[in-house]
Amino acid sequence: MGIKIYNTLSGEKEDFKPIKENEVGIYSCGPTVYDYFHIGNARAFIVPDIIKRYLNYRGYKIFHVLNFTDIDDKMIKRANQEEVTIEQLANRFIKAYFEDTDALNIRRADIYPKATEHIEGMIDLVEKLIAKDYAYSSGGDVYFRVEKFDEYGKLSKQHLEDLEAGNRVEVSGVKENPLDFTLWKESKEGEPSWESPWGLGRPGWHIECSVMSTKYLGDRFDIHTGGVDLTFPHHENEVAQSEACCGHQVVNYWVHNGYINIDGEKMSKSLDNFFTIREILEKYKAEVIRFFLISKHYRSPINFSDSELDSAKKSLGRLLNTLDKVENLLDLDAVEGGGDKGLKGLAQETEVEFKEAMDDDFNTALAIAVLHTMVKEVNLIVNNKEFILTEGLKEGLKEIKSTFESLAGDVLGILPKQEEAKGGLIDPLIELLVEVRSEVRKNKNYELADKIRDELKNLGVQIKDTPQGVEWKLK
Ligand SMILES: [Zn+2]
């Protein structure tokens, strides 16, 4: 079975067929960098991370673009409040964005374009739309003419007539239709502005994503992600702009993640019932927050509360405890012979079922349940009173460990950070110290050698002298 993705555009799960055989292009609507991001934003950043990790695991290469919106009303307001420039504000929260996404073990995108660095492209697109009669300038502003785009409403499944009937906004006089949206707006006194054929102004929000997605991914690309709240009007308008310009479909799969609710109410900045990731990190470990965010299918709403996070912590703890147990057993000496008690088969079966769950529109909830089933089976064996550690069993445990690390670590990214950090600077530093200690021992300075060993042990690094040389392990 292949991978299936629910496509907002068709309203159905579709077989995933990337445009290029082995490479997948993904665009994600990134943050407006005027504040720390909240748990609802975090979900919208983790969802593409899970998709990328899983597609990687299934052999695809990924090219991922995530934008920073660094010019809009919120940016201007906050910069004025804090008496800093827009650029200073943006730099501060872009830095914070990386700190928080790194903490959540979100892999970096390949490129992070900023809106302010693509103004020329936006002016260019607006000019093209005017030339094709899809847009008109009025006063110092430019609007998209929604009635001209026949398929307007196809993404959010709304008919233009219904939207018009439901839209009680007064026609301002400058717009032909109240639903026409801004592509370019005249800037007010003291606002940042750019020269354009329509005078000094700045781009609308929607136009930036049309420009930056197609610039880096081409005018046909595979996946576009974002929170469900962006479907209308942001993504609907993006579809209208991009497709009016290109004359064909641009995005093949539109992927939208569900809301986060607080006590049944939608969490949002405007309701002021949100928590930033920084606030939550003071109480819970990053891997617990991440586990919580992927514990439901990405399209389902999630209810956020301390008790939900506590149960995520327990559930993750059960998985990690078993991994710990397995790792400890692998360090012990075993009795020769013995069978694997079906552990190799269990590892294989787990991988198959995990794949089935993730192939089905990235069902992380089910994938986690599959890992729990594996852990339960392993516990039944290793917690048995008559348990004897044999070489055969150790072979099976090795398979369990590597399956667990691949699925929970590489794909879901829920193993504690320390595990991943092993591959970074820590490994070579430990290697270096181990080597220094060996040299010191060769020179018969046993006192210093022991001191290095003991100090490393205090830091959680265990050194073992074996006939094959020195082995070490991070606890
Ligand atoms: Zn966007």
In short:
The chain has 475 residues and is of the alpha/beta class. The protein has helices at residues 39-57, 73-82, 86-103, 119-131, 160-166, 205-217, 231-246, 277-281, 286-294, 306-331, 343-359, 364-382, 391-411, 417-442, 446-458; strands spanning 4-7, 12-15, 23-28, 61-66, 135-138, 141-144, 181-186, 201-203, 221-227, 251-257, 260-262, 265-266, 302-304, 461-466, 469-474. The longest helix is centred in the C-terminal third of the chain and has 26 residues, at 306-331.
CATH superfamily of the largest domain: HUPs
Number of domains: 3
Which overall shape is indicated by the principal axes computed on the Cα atoms?
A: elongated
Number of helices: 15
Low-confidence stretches: none
The molecules bound to the chains, other than polymers, are:
zinc ion
Number of strands: 15
Please provide the ordered H/E string of secondary-structure elements. Answer: EEEHEHHHEEHEEHEHEEEHHEHHHHHHEE
**Strand order of the main beta sheet, please?**
4-3-9-10
Helix share bin? 40-55%
Q: Regarding quaternary structure, how should these chains be classified?
A: single chain
Main sheet characteristics: 4 strands, parallel
The separation of the N and C termini measures: 39 Å
Per the CATH scheme, the topology name of the largest domain is Rossmann fold
Average pLDDT rating? 93
Determine the strand fraction and express it as a percent band.
5-15%
Radius of gyration, whole Å: 27 Å
What CATH architecture label of the largest domain applies?
A: 3-Layer(aba) Sandwich
